[in-house]
Design brief:
about 650 residues, mainly alpha, two-stranded antiparallel sheet, 2 strands, globular
């Protein structure tokens, strides 16, 4: 897709030796997203249908876990790094990524078709292989499915290990965030369409679905490979060209990938996300415990998926403007409020329909924050990892992620079993536990996810500080100990500077959150009086209102620091503390200002139920959230201390620290 133009006034976008006009860049996006559509549909089919077949065959849960999770992750730890390094060092007339995709395509499609016909193949094997006749049809079918799944996962590693790397090789750095947003929208849309239109036929027409996905993948993905062209890559470095033993190559892989503390922190952060993500696999059990039915859960997830697509559309452009690491780091820090505020559900039991709307409202308020963080996942690696060894570093991160996923898969189930045992032993007489029954243990998911989020909070903060020390927006180049300079030069993309006017507006939103919470606590005394909720009045006067005053004072002191630093920066003086990024603070300020409406809804529900305990617990949960917001803001200004020294510059490149 290399293009030239004779019109110098036309904007050109460059990625390595590739040059795009605006039209050519649009077509590049179209073909890559079309390939993502075909690939995502193919990948969605297998993990959604195969478990149903295994379950119908009475496959043991441990064996199902081995087939569906353990083996793929083990392949991701071993095969994927090898393919990634090989693709980094590949120099062919078709590029370094596409040859691996095309070479694996026939085998991948064949394995899909074979999985679709697994019943017929199993019956045929029992007839032609005498020894198999001694086994039950179910056992033979399970064994066949296991073998076919291994084949599928093996050849799929060639695509998983190179397709995402292709984006970094052909998409201009200035548009990585927008492409990542579009990429996420397409992936989410494919999953939604599949679940809405095809999943209902997963058991009755699985053969047709598998064959259809294989045909679409071969034709659609193949067309993408034909239309997308890779550029010319620089020659290999001496270390990459020289042949060495496998042991020496392995040592070089780990030395280069894990030697720099900055990369170590990014890898650890990825592993922590794996631990947090495994807990979400039990989300359905938590929602069932909160008295939602399967239909409501389906609607709930569908609405959140749609909201995520819309939010991603608007969030993606800010990833490029604010830098993906900054947006991701701020998102991780402030998202700690999400899981930790859910402690309240340990003590409150609501009707399923009521919980549906309250929980849905809370999740929708987090949609933009979550979309912004998710849209950063791909651009972060593309802006921070060495381009010459991009596949190698992505696979190194994948090793850490796979190890943590395997460990978390074993540990999270044990965590819930341990909580269940504790509840049965010590809390069995409490009404809330009795109402919850066997599923009450799933209300403790916030402990697992909150602990992981808190740990990631620390790790990603350290990574951000390290990034600033390595140059930040203006001067960062990936550390590369294999080069004479110790860095690998990559294009530096301009990001927007800190805007004092917008930051002051963001602080006003946060003022509204803190002072509005105090005002709301005082105002609620009147409806309590009307409804004769004497216990609520006493608890608010003795506990909620005093704590809200403390929170308001703490926020006043912290926000005053920020405003004083802004004034210093405007005068050209060095800020004493640190200045947070205006855009991210605006996102959080608006989000948590809207959350006050959710708090009002919680109070209304509690008053309708005439529950003084519930309204007090919801108020305390809001206070805890506000305290966490103050903590997050304090961490952010300390994190920026010494680096966010200028405001109202056109870009962070111009505002770079010398």
């Amino acid at each position: 897709m290399e293009s030239t133009t004779n019109r110098p006034e036309e904007t050109l976008f460059r990625c390595g030796t590739l040059t795009y006009t605006r039209t050519a860049l649009t077509m590049l996006f179209v073909w890559l997203l079309w390939g993502d559509f075909c690939f995502t549909l193919m990948e969605t089919v297998v993990p959604s249908i195969v478990p149903l077949h295994l379950k119908n065959l009475q496959c043991p849960n441990w064996l199902m876990g081995m087939i569906l999770s353990t083996i793929p992750n083990l392949m991701g730890m071993t095969i994927s790094p090898y393919i990634s390094v090989k693709s980094d060092r590949c120099r062919s007339r078709w590029g370094r990524r596409i040859p691996f995709i095309v070479a694996s395509m026939p085998f991948l499609c064949a394995s899909l078709v074979l999985i679709g016909f697994h019943n017929e193949i199993a019956l045929w094997l029992r007839r032609v292989v005498p020894v198999l006749a001694d086994f039950s049809p179910a056992a033979v079918t399970i064994g066949l499915l296991a073998v076919l799944m291994v084949l599928f996962q093996f050849f799929n590693q060639f695509v998983n290990s190179t397709f995402n790397y292709l984006f970094n090789d052909v998409v201009p750095q200035s548009h990585l965030g927008r492409f990542a947003g579009a990429f996420r929208i397409v992936g989410t849309g494919v999953s939604a369409l599949y679940n809405f239109f095809l999943f209902q036929f997963a058991e009755s027409h699985s053969r047709e679905i598998f064959v259809g996905s294989a045909i679409l993948y071969a034709a659609g993905f193949g067309l993408m490979c034909l239309m997308v062209k890779e550029g010319k890559y620089p020659p290999l470095e001496p270390e990459q060209e020289q042949k060495s033993s496998r042991w020496d190559a392995l040592r070089q892989f780990f030395r280069e990938s894990f030697g720099e503390p900055f990369y170590q922190l990014l890898f650890i952060s990825s592993g922590i996300l794996a631990f947090a993500g495994v807990a979400w696999g039990f989300q359905v059990f938590f929602l069932l415990e909160m008295k939602m039915n399967l239909q409501e859960i389906g609607i709930y997830n569908g609405i959140l998926m749609l909201a995520g697509m819309i939010a991603t559309f608007f969030a993606a452009v800010f990833v490029d403007r604010w830098h993906p690491l900054r947006a991701y780091t701020y998102g991780i820090i402030f998202n700690i409020t999400g899981p930790l505020m859910n402690w309240v559900w340990l003590f409150i039991d609501l009707p399923g329909r009521t919980f549906f709307f309250l929980s849905l409202g809370a999740q929708l308020l987090y949609s933009f924050m979550n979309a912004l963080s998710a849209a950063c996942a791909m651009p972060i690696t593309m802006r921070l990892f060495p381009h010459s060894r991009y596949g190698q570093f992505c696979s190194a991160r994948g090793i850490v992620y796979s190890i943590c996923t395997i460990l978390a898969g074993f540990m999270v189930g044990g965590f819930y079993d341990l909580v269940k045992y504790f509840c049965e032993l010590h809390l069995s007489n409490y009404p809330i536990v009795t109402a919850g029954g066997a599923g009450y243990c799933y209300r403790f998911y916030f402990v697992w996810s909150g602990g992981a989020t808190l740990l990631n909070f620390i790790v990603i903060t350290l990574a951000y500080r390290r990034w600033l020390k390595l140059g930040g927006d203006a001067k960062f180049h990936p550390p590369a100990p294999w080069t004479p300079e110790g860095i690998e030069h990559i294009p530096v993309v301009a990001t927007t500077g800190y805007n004092s006017r917008l930051l002051r507006i963001a602080l006003r939103f946060m003022d509204f959150v803190m002072y509005g919470s105090l005002a709301l606590a005082v105002v609620m005394l009147w409806p309590f009086q009307v409804h004769q909720m004497e216990s609520a009045i006493r608890l608010f006067l003795s506990l909620v209102i005093p704590l809200s005053i403390v929170v308001a004072v703490l926020w006043y002191l912290l926000s005053r620091r920020i405003r004083l630093d802004l004034a210093s920066a405007k005068r050209g003086e060095m800020p004493k503390y640190g200045i947070p990024h205006h855009g991210m603070m605006m996102v959080f300020g608006i989000k948590f200002a809207l959350t006050l409406g959710l708090v009002v809804a919680q109070f209304v529900v509690s008053i309708h139920m005439e529950s003084s305990l519930n309204v007090t617990l919801f108020a305390l949960a809001n206070i805890v959230t506000n305290l966490l917001l103050i903590l997050c803001t304090y961490v952010v200004i300390r994190m920026e201390q010494g680096y966010s020294v200028k405001v109202d510059e056109a870009s962070m490149i111009q505002a770079g620290v010398n």
